[in-house]
Amino acid sequence: MTGPRRYLVILNEEEQYTLWPEDGTVPQGWQPTGFAGTQDECLAHVDEVWTDMRPRSLRLHVDEQVR
């Protein structure tokens, strides 16, 4: 008997998060964040760390406009 499926939390260069099966190959352009767990654990982690849903490039552009 196997336990619940495990996932990695991965991040792209735009600092967008997603879950990926732990036993899968991480897609090009994405890298593991170091967090792994069940789907619920990973989603809770993403909710905690991904506080600004805008892509990194948009955040930087807006920050430049404000200065």
TrEMBL record:
GO CC field: cytosol
Where do the TM regions start and end? none
Biological-process GO terms, alphabetical:
siderophore biosynthetic process
Read off the Pfam families from this record. MbtH
SMART domains per the record? Answer: MbtH
Q: Where is the MbtH-like domain?
A: 1-48
What name is this protein filed under? MbtH protein
Organism encoding this protein: Umezawaea tangerina
